[in-house]
Amino acid sequence: MKTLKPATIAAQASGAIDPLTGGVVPPIQPSTTFVRGEDYALLNGEYAYARYHNDAGVIAETTIASLENAAAALLFPSGMAAIASVFRTLPNNATAVIQKGIYHGTTHWIRSFCQRRDIALHEIDTSDNATLAAIEKADLIFVETPSNPWLKITDIRAAATVAKRTGAVLIVDSTASTPILSQPLNFGADIVMHSATKALNGHSDVLAGVLAFKEKSHLFNRIQSERNDAGTVIGPFDAWLLNRGMRTLPLRVERMCQSAEQVAKFLIDHPAVDDVFYPGLPSFPGHKLARKQMPGGFGFLMSVLIKGNATNALQVAGRLNLFHRATSLGGVESLVEHRHTIEPDTGIPENLLRLSIGIEDPGDLIDDLGQALGQ
Ligand code: PLP
Fold first, then answer.
1. Annotated active-site positions, please?
2. Cβ of 78 less than 6 Å from ligand 1
3. How many CB atoms lie within 10 A of CB 248?
4. pTM greater than 0.90
5. What is the pLDDT of residues 166-211, one digit of tens each?
6. Which residues, 6+ apart, have CB-to-CB distance to 247 below 8 Å?
7. CB 269, CB 375: distance < 8 Å
């Protein structure tokens, strides 16, 4: 069959028509256990216990695998659980390379994990091709592109070349991109990871994570059995909500990107703003690469340096009426965050505000930012 476009895959993400009722939306099966007949055979061989099988989860995995052009996907109860499941496959004394300046929760957990497992950890700026090419030894390379909150763009093809040379597994956190904007497996990544808590679900009401694999490899099998046996599985309600959210993913992301470009253009010219980090701005260092690597658009996330200090930035955040002052990103509602408050010792500028642009009217968002900055 002809390959379907993302909008079609997502709109029909509910899977097949429910054979029992004809419903166009899949039912939720909350049962954790499944009965056996008098002969002690399972009524349906696929269903025995919910830790091993969850229909709504399988639908979400199938949808994400299609969107990412992946051989298979695995769903987790959070983005962090997905990341941890890959790192846990590393033997003691292995070598891991991660991008520096990424989501601090990821860095924080990986540091502590590598320390207690005697894994050599190198944090480097993977957005710099020379730094990337200088990697000599690695069992696993982890990059986040665009990075959060610096929006740095790593050349996935270049990272894949290094991964091949060193024999490392390349995993790309593509949360700020989504499969609508970029498909890292097409550039040579082995695994693409998303915090599905963000734009994939898009409604700020589900915690979830996903790994999509280029191949149904030995690594896939290992991570899948570890997930099921050790029990880092998502519940049916959350998986069902994720399916519902993903049906509108392309529409939401398209609108969010269009609005984000308008917001970024407004901010970069504003006298109360020092700088804007947004891959869609031609002045942004990663712009040219983003144009190639994110053919679907530049995303909905940006960081803004407000003229002045922490007080000035916090005052701007405090005056916003439409942007909710909250962490996270990728939801239908626009959010503003003063990252320095959350991670005061990681080098985030005190005057940086991170914006996640939602699906509201872009003119309203710009007006709100205008009044908060002082027109
Ligand atoms: N990766 C990125 C880029 C994130 O922004 C986050 C959370 O903010 C995570 C991973 C972790 O995902 P979760 O909060 O779903 O565990």
1. 51, 103, 173, 198
2. yes
3. 18
4. yes
5. 999 999 999 999 999 999 999 999 999 999 999 999 999 999 999 9
6. 10, 11, 12, 13, 14
7. no
